[in-house]
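Q: I'm writing a short methods note and want an example of a predicted protein-small molecule complex. Could you take the sequence and the SMILES for calcium ion and return the bound structure as tokens? Please keep the output block clean; save any remarks for afterwards.
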Amino acid sequence: MINRYLNLSIFCVAILWSCQEAQTTKEPIGSADAKDSAANCGSPHSRAAALTKGSNANVELITLSNGSVVPATADTSKWPVKPWPHKMVWVSGGNFQMGGVGNEARPDEFPVHKVAVDGFWMDQTEVTNEAFKEFVQQKKFVTTAETKPDWEELKKQLPPGTPKPDESLLVPGALVFVPTPGPVDLHDNSQWWKWIPGVNWKHPNGLRDDVLSSTTLDQHPVVQVSWFDAVTYASYYGKRLPTEAEWEFAARGGKEGEVYGWGNDHPTNNNIKANIWQGQFPYINSQEDGFVFTAPVASYLPNQFGLYDMMGNVWEWCSDWYRPNTYAMEAEQMIAKNPQGPSESYDPQEPFTPKKVVRGGSFLCNEVYCASYRPSARMKTSPDSGESHTGFRCVMSDQEWRKYLKGKRG
Ligand SMILES: [Ca+2]
Ligand SMILES: [Ca+2]
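A: Understood, no commentary inside the block.
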């Protein structure tokens, strides 16, 4: 994963792309295939296709009193007493083996170790644009991507001696995925990540998108939100971000020891379980799952806990700092109880940049590039970075829920 500024060369690219963006405001991007795909992004037709393809069909869903839609087989007998928070599900705590399963697991997912988490409420879906819109209007909130970068803060994340870029380049903006015209070296992600001035949650994929003036993207997950934005949103509603232990426990949906959130069967063009990338990354998206970019939340079946899109669609911020050896530290205990992560971040790939954990993969994940649509997959992003494939969802303990409810009732 990348940080807000990747490296200073991105600023030069930003200016170039800004010009291209201005000239092609109404034009799709990338290859011919990607152009068609971009035009279809988020259409009702795609949503229907996604819901009825492959083995997604034939699961009975029921609607609960708090608006949550869960599998009819979900066990709500252990949920706390009503009232339940709106569109959240109760994840009964327990012990589990946390860490990598299967051949796609990476070194930072090991050692597998025993973890215990207490029960908690979790948003059924990623936070939507509609919900974030309401929050922004109520709180008069301004996100990180809408503010001018502060060089004094930025330089702390860069190798000592890095020269300051020209002041004209230090403008609000964010990172956007842009399909490439053809095959590229997959080791260089700056080829498909572009810094675009003016991009933020209101214009998530480029200046042609306008979340505020249209309802088209209302049910899509909010993106281009920094970790700080996500924390502020969560606390406004008496919630918080999940720890990565809570997130992984929830993502497994009770299926311990299985590779994916839905079991062990590999995702294919005929086995559609989540919004990921099909085709040739990052230039041809064959969109068997119905979407090139984000999908409306809950376009695919939930796991057994009633949680949607824990795999794919957008990465989700967690509360923990990232370190590749977090699990080695936790494994020193017989059982790690409600682990909160390390006190400091360290990413050997970018040692000067503190990073928070993100989980679950996104619409960009595919088996060739990252295969992070797995409960155990870990990734990291600097907390000030908004990206077009990163969002979040919130959690709260039952005690936090009762406290919030009491406060609201005054
Ligand atoms: Ca997709
Ligand atoms: Ca997700």
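A: Remarks, as requested: The chain is about 20% helix and 15% strand. The domain at 10-20+87-409 is CATH 3.90.1580.10 (paralog of FGE (formylglycine-generating enzyme)).
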